[in-house]
Amino acid sequence: MSIFEAILLTVITASTPLVIAALGELVTERSGVLNLGVEGMMIIGAVGAFAAAQLTGSAYIGIVGGIVSGALFSLLFAFLTLTLVTNQVATGLALTILGLGASGMLGEAFVGAPGIRLLPIEIPVLSAIPYVGTVLFKQDLIFYLSILLVVGVNWFLFRSRTGLKIRAIGDNHASAHALGINVIRMRYLAVMFGGACAGLAGAQLSLIYTPQWTENMSSGRGWIALALVVFSSWRPWRLLAGGYLFGAVTILQLHAQAFGIGIPSQFLSMLPYAATVVVLIMISHNRRTTMINTPASLGKAFVPDR
Amino acid sequence: MKKLALALAATAALVLSIGSAAEAAEKTKVCFVYVGTRTDGGWTQAHENGRLQVEKEFADKVETSFLESVPEGPDAERAIERMARSGCSLIFTTSFGYMDATVAVAKKFPKVKFEHATGFKAADNVATYNSRFYEGRYISGIIAGKLSKTGTAGYIASFPIPEVVMGINAFETGAKSVNPNFKMKVIWVNTWFDPGKEADAAKALLDQGVDILTQHTDTTAPMQVAEQRGVKAFGQASDMIKAGPNVQLTAIIDTWGNYYVKRVQALLDGTWKSEQSWDGLKDGILTMAPYTNMPDDVKKLAEETEAKIKSGELHPFTGPINKQDGTPWLKAGEKADDGTLLGMNFYVEGVDDKLPAQ
């Protein structure tokens, strides 16, 4: 394997959890709900996946464990913000703190346990293509899922009837309600989809990225995912590109150091964040492109008149 | 004047001992501030083991408490101050980045005693303690020099502070003593704790041709990458053999417990003074994990080196050693003094990296 392929492989590993978590949040935000608890849901997914894999001995059941625990955890957020109408920003932040604490407690028994690694699946024929084959078609299930999810969500949001409803309640929940759409139910489902995705991203961390359980192992990736949603201006394909850009900058700065390129490492470590800021500025510079996609009722509570 | 001072000191000691006797009834509180989680398998876990030893030793006289995952920076000062307000008599702050915060809080609470790990700023109520990790890293370097086929090791480094630079230099000096052309590649991850990033750095180093790994970060993720790729590696702070059963050569194990017990005892006796302690292999504050996964002759050499360092026969930083650019640092037979080591901000010859500005 050439160094080029090796670098691409690590870029994919680093980018996949960002893409998946951000994609879930994108759907949540398209429905008008701002859930800042991605970091918390992600770490709950990581511990859920690790625990499920340990208890059953199967990494695949681990994936299911990650998805289910992320979704269930987001249900708590949905109940608080949608049914009890609490402040979304505060509740999201609380969800992150709770997730970090609870995952540490739940995971205590699994610390130091040798992880069960999810093995790559080779796709016949395609994996024989030089360069592209090793990089794209000898990957683990979660990578394939991430690509399918981007395609699926893009189709769902812009081509399906339900997707149209979700975008409608994100843009104007009062009108959508007047048209007879069940705003609360749709938002519950959107939040849970976001939770399930964050959980899947967490599963990638504890089953593939570093197959082990360590407290705080998400290390701020949930926040990067949140930034990616804005970065992508709520479009799935842009989000995919942004996630890979971010992963690439992160990995390339490590390689630049190992090559002995004389740039200060602190500067290189800052690059991914600097890139985010630059792109955010570029996007927001063009007022039309940003305003068109921002869900108008994002973060606003909806109380149906009874 | 001297007599007066002595009399004052005696009175103070008496008052203090009465004070501690009264407190003993309701248990003296000893507190710890951790940078990572107690179960990180590395640095913080090693301090946690020390805390547990204190609990065991003074079960009826001392109660301990701790704060974990306290980020370095402004939060640290608030966390340490919270500890000081909550009635702690002695507070151990266990990360280099807590240095200024510890000194700042100590000024506000002159009656509370503080001990800062790996720093250099002291005060009447702030002691510092450190371990001569470089002795262990020198041994690791020798093993690497013997075993590496490419003659290049990869080093995953956290922050460019003297402690870490000293470790890199000790490793290189050890390796060079058995392989004069030994080289090192360094990646700075600018974090103590990020398993994903540490693993990425390990992969990047391996992809670029190093065939032995060592780390100065806190999680077992690099060791796990080494295990997956079948590349030899060294553990850091705790024995990481569980993460790398087939690849861990040895590990530098921080064994803070004895030091903590000694200092808590001094506090109880009223003899606690601000000191700057820097012990090493000889004093047992630093121990080496069993030498595994290596040929017998290398193992023997490592054990001999360890014995020589313990007896004082060998100082890892003994000249001739040149700085990275080739200018002489230590003359033949000259030993580095502690002051230079603790403020180390340059590489020795053979390190293939540019030291980031601090």
From TrEMBL, chain B:
Answer yes or no on keyword Signal.
yes
Q: Which Pfam families does this chain map to? A: Bmp
Q: Name the residues that span the membrane.
A: none
Q: Which residues form the signal peptide?
A: 1-24
> What highest taxon heads this organism's lineage?
Bacteria
Which residues are in the ABC transporter substrate-binding protein PnrA-like domain?
A: 27-309
Tell me the Gene3D superfamilies matching this sequence: 3.40.50.2300
Q: Which InterPro entries match?
A: ABC-Purine-Binding (IPR052910), PnrA-like (IPR003760)
Q: Keywords in UniProt for this one?
A: Signal
Kindly provide the name given to this protein in its UniProt entry.
BMP family ABC transporter substrate-binding protein
Q: Recall the taxonomic lineage recorded for the source organism.
A: Bacteria, Pseudomonadati, Pseudomonadota, Alphaproteobacteria, Hyphomicrobiales
